[in-house]
Design a protein that fits this description.
The chain is mostly helical and 72 residues long. The chain has 3 helices and 2 strands, in the order αααββ. The chain has one domain: Arc Repressor Mutant, subunit A. 49% of the residues lie in helices and 11% in strands. The chain has a two-stranded antiparallel sheet. A hairpin with a 3-residue loop joins strand 1 and strand 2.
Length: 72
Amino acid sequence: MSRPPELPSVRVERDLRRRLDAGEWDHGQALPTVTRLAQEYQVGKGTINKVLRTLADEGLVRIVRSWGTFRV
């Protein structure tokens, strides 16, 4: 049997974790906007927001309303 398709949020979260671990953004540096990430990953903004909240809950990023999401 083939594996079921991967959910977009799982794919995005896995890739953002990889990019954070690789040091693509320095500590305190802003990540791209939700709109830009949604375009890059070809998913909805809701998917990006969900992933960013998960990463924030784990202490990997900090979301500052009206300012952006920053690497911790």
